[in-house]
Design a protein that fits this description.
The chain is built from 1 helix and 11 strands; from the N terminus they run H-E-E-E-E-E-E-E-E-E-E-E. With about 180 residues, the chain is of the alpha+beta class.
Amino acid sequence: MTQNRISSVFATWVIGLVAVVASAACAPPANEAGPTTAPSSAPAETPTPSAAQDNSPPPSNSKVTVSTSAGKYGVGAMVTVSITNNLDKVIYTEDFKTACTIAYVQRLNSGAWTDIGACRLERPTIIVSLAPGQVRTVSYDPSSFSSGTYRVRFTYRMTQDGNDPLTAYSSEFKVG
């Protein structure tokens, strides 16, 4: 009976250790650029309507900035986006947005912005933090995007829990 109890406790300890190691392996190190587009999570060709299709221009005085590496990309060229936290506090977001990154790519369709490419990985969403002054780089492969006008929408919040009530946008860029 004591042998069974010891085996049970040991098995529980091993399972707990494996769970901690597995969850730590999924989180990106704080000093790395962060998520990038994975081949299996490329944006869908058909845009999906955004829950909130915000047609407002990007704010010019935002302390959280979103900038692209160029204003125009050829089809198949990598789109690189930098998200910078210029606030004096940590901000939080999730990594389950376009192509399983921390930001949405939006396409301009008939005067309305529409989020494109959902995350199709079957895993839990990871909360990502950006420390004051931290820059997170995200890359998107637009080869499955059609020619058009795009922007990046980054939603974030000031606490780990809750929804993303704050938004920063990149300038518009062209593909094609």
